[in-house]
Protein 1
Amino acid sequence: MSSVSAPDNQNHTQPVPIRSAGHPADTFTADEIAQFERDGFLIVRGLADADWTTRMLQVIREHLERELPPVELEADVHYPGSPESIDQPGGRTIRRLKQAHSRDIVFTEWICHLPLVRRLTQLLGPGVVMPLAHHNCVMTKQPHHSSDTRWHRDIRYWNFTRPELVNVWLALGNEYPKNGGLFVVPGSHRIEFKPSQLDKDLFFREDVAENQTLLNSAVPVELSAGDVLFFHARTLHMATRNNTDQTKFSVVFTFRPADNPPIPESRSAAAGEVVLPEVPDETRL
Ligand SMILES: O=C(O)CCC(=O)C(=O)O
C-alpha cells in the first residue's frame, strides 16, 4: 500500500446565548489578523482549558466505544493506508464521529465560548454562522488503520456564494507529524490553481514540477491539548496516517460570514446551520 510522505436548507436555529462574559482583551491582535490574512492560518494556544478537553474526551471515548452513528470509517474514504473494505482487518476503524454539534452540549458550549466567538467575529464579521454539513466532527485518527489525507483545500467540494469560510481545529492532545498532525502551505489560500495542478479528485498533485515550490514551503502544525488552529477553507493542507500507538482526537467545525450563504439545493445547504451568538457590545474591540 502506498503512503503519502510528509514533507520534511437554511434551517437556522435560534442563536444560543453567550454563557460567560470573558475578557475583552481575549481577542486577536491586529498583527494576528494580518498574519491570518497573509498565511491563511493561525494558532491560538490554550484557547480551551483542560475542563473542556476532558469533558469532550469523555463523550468521544464513550461514542467510539458504542460506535454511535453517524460515523465515517477509514474504509469509507479509500485513502492510502485505509482498510480496503469493512471486512478487512481494521475495517470498522472509525475515522470521524460526524455531527459533533448534536452529540453533546459540550460541543455547543464550545462553539459559544466567548473567546472563540469573538475571534471568529473579528475574522468573519458579526452574525457568524456554522454550517452543519461540513466538518462538524471529531477526527479520531487511530493507530494501525488510519490513512493519509493528501494535499487539498476543504472548499473543493463545498458550495457557498464565496469561498470564504474559516475552520476551527481544536486539538484534544498533542498533534505532530508522527501522529498524523496537519501540514499547511502558508499563503496558499490566496493562490488560484490551474486545472493541471489538481488531480481528478481535486487533490493538489505531488507528482508535477509546477507544484514543488509550494509544497516545499509547507510547515507542520504542532498543537497541544486545548490549542486551536484557525485556517481558511482555501488553505492547502494534508496529514499522514498516525504512526504512533495513541489515538489523536481533534474537534473540527467550520464557520462562514453572515453574507456568504450556501448555494440553495447544494450539499452545503442540506444539513442546516447554527447562528453563533452575537458578541455583547461591551466586549467588542
Ligand atoms: O487529519 C487528517 O487526516 C486531515 C483531515 C482533513 O484534512 C480534512 O478533514 O479536511
Protein 2
Amino acid sequence: MTNTGSSSVQHSELRAADLATVAEQLGREPTVPFTVTARCTGGHPLVIRNAPLDADGAPFPTTYWLTCPDAVKTVSRLEADGWIARLNERANDDEMFGAAVAAAHEEAAEDRARALPDARAWGGVGGTRRGIKCLHAHYANRLGGGDDVVGAWVAQRVEPVHPTQRAHRVAAIDQGTNSCRLLVLEPGPDGTEEPTELARDMIITRLGVGVDRTGRFEPEALARTIAVIDRYCRRARALAAEMIRVGATSATRDAANRDELADAVRRSAGSELEVITGEQEAALSFLGATRGLDPSAGPFLVVDIGGGSTEFVLGRHPTLTDHAISVQMGSVRLTERSIRNDPPTPDDLDRLRRGVRRGIGEAAAAVPVGEARTFVSVAGTATTIKAIALGLGRYDPDRIHRTWLHAAEVERVLDVLAGMTNEARAAIPVMAPGRGDVIVAGAVILVETMRRFGYERTLVSETDILDGLALEALGVR
Ligand SMILES: [Zn+2]
C-alpha cells in the first residue's frame, strides 16, 4: 500500500562548501541544521532556512535567515536609521498595513509548522507575534517565498544588493508525479559562461497519488501542490525572475481535472501551465543531463526514472536527442500496482520485476537503448542510491553529481532496501521524505535496465528536466 502522505514535506540537502561559507558569513559554526534557500550573483548563500529545532533539540523560531554580509549590512543601515519604530507606528495607524503584517506572521508560523506541527505556536516571522522586530528576518522571509509586506518594503530599498546582478533571471518549476521542484537561474555574462543557480528546491507533494487508478487528481493532493507552487512563484519573483515556466509531466498528462492545476498556475506564475509531452520530457531531460559533457563520450543514454513514467533517451551529442520514448512505468505507479506488503514479499518483487521488464521491452522496441557509450541516470532514484552506496550521513549533491554508480552497487543497495519496511527506509538520513516507500520500484527499474543492456556503470546526474526547462527558458543550449 502506498502512503498517500497528509502534508507537503521538504527535502533537506546541504553542500559541504555551503556549510563552510555560511560559517564564514555568520562568523561561527551554525548550531541549527539548515538548507540554502536563495543565493546571490556569484552563488554564495543569501538566505538559509533553519530547521525548527537546533542541534540540541531546543526551539529555533527564526526560519529564514539572511546570511549574505552585504545584504545584512544594507538592511542594518535601515534599522540604524530608525525604520523599525516608524514601521511599527505605521502598523498601528494604517489598518491595511497592520493587517498585512499580522498575515505575514500567521503565514510564517504555518510555513514553520510544515516541518514541525508544534512549532506553529512559536510566533511568526523571526518568532515575533505582533509588530516588527527585525527587518533582516522580514526580508529573508520574503526571499523564502513569504507574502511579507515588510520584506517587500525592505527589498525596494536595498536591491540590487550586489551591483553586478544580471537581468533576465528565469525560474522553472517541474511538477512531477511525486515531487514539485524549483530552479531559479541567472544567465552568465555573455551566454557562454555557466548560469548561476539562485535557488533549487524540492518538495514532495504526491500530486499523482491515485491518478493511475482514478484518472483524476485528489483534492488534497491538488491543494498541497498548489500551495507549494504559489510559494515557489513568490520566491522566484522575490529573486527577480522575469519569467516563471511551469512544466508538468506524467500524472498531469493523465489527469482529467488538470484545468484546476492550470488555473492555479496562471494565477501564481502568470504563465500557462505547460503539459509536457513524453517526447518533450525526453528532450528536456537530455538537455539538462548532458549539457557540458565531453562529446567524445557519446552516444549518450539518459534514463529518467520518474514517479509515473520513465524516459529513455539516446543522443549522439550532448543536448541533441536522436531517439526517445516515455514508458508508463514509474516508481509510484509500479509501487501502487505491484507491492502489497511491507516489506515487500518475493511475490511482490516478482510482480514488480515482470512489470519493469515489460516496460523496458517497450523502450527497447523504440530506442536502441544498448548502443550508448555513456549511460546517464537522472532523478531521485539514482541519486539516492548513490548517496546510500556512499554511506552519506547528509545528502550533499556535490558528492553525487556526475559520479559513477556501478551495477554491483545498485544491486547491493536494492537488496538492502527491499528487505526493509517503509518506515525503516524513510529513516535513512539521505532519503527524501516521501521517497522511502517507492524507491524499491525505482531501483528495480535501474537494475533491470543495467542488466538487460549490459551497462557496468552509470553516470549519476543531479541535473535533469528541471535544468532543461530553465536552460531552454534562458536560451542556453
Ligand atoms: Zn550576496
